[in-house]
Amino acid sequence: MAAHSSIEAITARIVERSKPHREAYLDRLRRAASRGPHRSTLSCGNLAHGFAVCSPAEKEALAGDVVPNLGIITAYNDMLSAHQPYETFPPIIREAAREAGGIAQVAGGVPAMCDGVTQGQPGMELSLFSRDAIAMAAGIGLSHNMFDAAVFLGICDKIVPGLVIAALSFGHLPSVFIPAGPMTTGLPNDEKSRIRQLYAEGKVGRAELLEAESKSYHGPGTCTFYGTANSNQMLMEIMGFHMPGASFVNPGTPLREALTREAAKRALAITALGNEFTPAGEMIDERSIVNGVVGLHATGGSTNHTLHLVAMARAAGILLTWQDISELSDIVPLLARVYPNGLADVNHFHAAGGMGFLIKQLLKTGMVHDDVRTVFGHGLEAYTVEAKLDANGQVTREAIPDQSGDPKVLAPIETPFQSNGGLKMLKGNLGKAVIKISAVKPERHIIEAPAIVFHDQQALQDAFKRGELNRDFVAVVRFQGPKANGMPELHRLTPPLGVLQDRGFKVALVTDGRMSGASGKVPAAIHITPEASDGGPIARIKDGDIIRLDAVAGTLEVLVDAAEFGARVAVVVDLSENEFGMGRELFAPFRRHVGTADMGASVFA
Prior knowledge:
The protein is α/β, with parallel strands linked by helices. It has helices at 5-34, 44-50, 56-62, 89-99, 115-118, 127-142, 159-169, 189-200, 206-216, 228-238, 254-269, 280-283, 286-299, 305-315, 322-331, 346-351, 354-364, 457-465, 482-485, 494-502, 562-567, 588-593; strands spanning 69-74, 103-109, 149-153, 175-177, 373-374, 377-378, 385-389, 395-399, 423-428, 431-436, 446-454, 473-477, 507-511, 524-529, 546-550, 555-558. Strands 9-10-14-13-12-11-15-16 form an eight-stranded mixed sheet. A four-stranded parallel sheet has the order 2-1-3-4.
């Protein structure tokens, strides 16, 4: 089916806006690809270093340009539950490559930090910047010019966007992303949230909180709520970087291993040495990016992707804007209820039909482009399937049923949970911001209340504990942008604000910091740009100023006389505490050179 007229119109606008950048990018890509397999350009000394530890047979094969060599970029570490399974993937990929007549080498590792561990801690101030550091590290691994294709092993928050930026920077190479899958279901997410709120109120202690958290995050695999990590997996499948049906299969299962083997073999099949050459930078185009945004809205995905999708698109010469994202949200229906905008987790989503059912529903009404290239071939229709194992342990695919396995989790497009994706851009005299309202009750979509200004998360926490916040207010938490301190996530604010909301107060958050897919039930205008450290209007707000957040009209205003507000001097605060400790001093160049949030908050031009 052809794409919906509004989808076509927005895509065409992105194509036109991007044309000079995209054409220059494709020209560079095609010149790189035209040089053929790159080992032929290496000197004998270069090549000898590149295959020094290989077997004699592998050295003989790599000496020519006939046998494809697969580069593995891995984000493995065994502290992150989502990445621990990757420990065993390189041997599996090497064996699969040999079976397919190729060779595989680990080209390099990239850092992988866990936002769950650093949440509310100094290390969180490195988190957003780790995305661009990951892209650089992956680029170093691929810079050896030894590879005909690459596979990327990464799952979590900044890791996949960083790896995508690297894959598109090396866009002349085919790239396949290999997921590891979510952990099995633990303590229900609503119960975890309840215990967190009780702890914030002082009604349970640290021991009870730790027990609940440990039952929630209990084994190998991605955390099961629908935050940035699982939004990443959805994106990789709907954009065509995953094999069909691969995203949400649990680690340590026979199907998971079979999908990994299949992905490695497919990466070798789509090199320039074969007949299905699929360079990543040609494969991903404006239609693929729009499909990713549509998938984000249809599932109520992470607001972090208002940063990441912009940065990822730019790596391919595509200029995506918040306006594009907001307009797409207005027309894309919400089809999934996964925590925090529902009680289910991603395992329930997958069991209800998962990505196959989602894509099938979106194709029905032309909400996504079918005429795209993917690592599997041509057309998104091929992803309307469920992956299974046949009697020989090989991956087979069956057409996804027409009916949802659980309509309370995954709805048909004829009866969506809501008519839009719930993510909007806000504009007004405070600049631009984004808000996610898919988990916010309709009566809280408009909040008008006095401002209470804070310069860090802890100040709000302290005020809550002192009982000073039992009233209607808008919490303005500023100097949390990328230039100020790396734009940390502010999820420690969700429990106290949730408590106050449950007590009947009208509360909202306005910040130049960020949240993610777990931002939940409290209305939050985030990613405000210009940020306070750039002298943005948020730096001129005073306690008591009336702020109106209107997620219906898409506005964010401070209701102060324009002349008076314009005459105020922006507040400047001492940020020296953000400059040292836990590696923050190493990222000073990032803070100096980072771009604005609406441009992806990236250090890359």
